């Protein structure tokens, strides 16, 4: 008999080209939702050493892959949100291999994990995979950017609701 609890649904859309020049909303969480990266005090983010690693690696990602554009990015205590765009204009697969969204986010998560492990925090890990939404309109884009930018201010309200 199959163990239905070990069957994972692929979170990506079947048949969709995640290398295509599009905007995407991304969320990825720390395993077990441990508060790892920062504190939020009065709607302001105070990064700790692990949050600073996340920020450095996000900056590395944007510099290393010139076809990526970060429209919004926020580090929360136990997750990150981003609105990211894959650009093709001016880039050719002939000279630069454009990676898929999964490859890009995988590189980011791997680099963050390696650097955090170097601090001695061997128990750090991410949840498997990540959540994405393909952004189809300017209205969706504006809403996701607003959501990412307002996330720290909304954190206290969300945290209080969880305790109710």
What tags apply to this protein structure?
single chain, 164 residues, alpha+beta, Alpha-Beta Plaits, 3 helices, 6 strands, 37% helix, 22% strand, disordered N terminus
Please outline the helices and strands.
Blueprint: E1 23-29, E2 38-41, E3 44-47, H1 49-64, E4 68-75, E5 79-86, H2 101-118, E6 131-135, H3 138-163
Antiparallel strand pairs: 1-5, 1-6, 2-3, 4-5
Helix pairs in contact: 1-2
What does this structure look like?
Helices cover 37% and strands 22% of the residues. The strands form 2 sheets. It has a 4-stranded antiparallel β-sheet with strand order 4-5-1-6, sandwiched between helices. Strands 2-3 form a two-stranded antiparallel ribbon. The longest helix is centred in the C-terminal third of the chain and has 26 residues, at 138-163. The model is unreliable at 1-9 (pLDDT under 50). A hairpin with a 3-residue loop joins strand 4 (68-75) and strand 5 (79-86). 21% of the residues are buried. The protein contains 3 helices and 6 strands; from the N terminus they run βββαββαβα. The chain is α+β, with helices and mostly antiparallel strands and 164 residues long. The chain has one domain (16-152): Transposase IS200-like (Alpha-Beta Plaits, 2-Layer Sandwich).
Summed up:
The protein is an alpha+beta fold. The chain has a single domain, classed as Transposase IS200-like (Alpha-Beta Plaits).
Number of strands: 6
Q: Specify the CATH class.
A: Alpha Beta
Task: Name the structural class.
Answer: alpha+beta
Number of domains in the coordinates?
1
Q: What's the CATH topology name?
A: Alpha-Beta Plaits
How does the overall form come out from the CA principal axes? globular
Q: What separation lies between the terminal Cα atoms?
A: 40 Å
How many helices? The count is 3
Q: What quaternary form is this? A: single chain
Q: What radius of gyration results from the CA coordinates? A: 17 Å
CATH hierarchy: architecture: 2-Layer Sandwich
Strand order in the sheet with the most strands? 4-5-1-6
Compressed to H and E, one letter per element, the order equals EEEHEEHEH
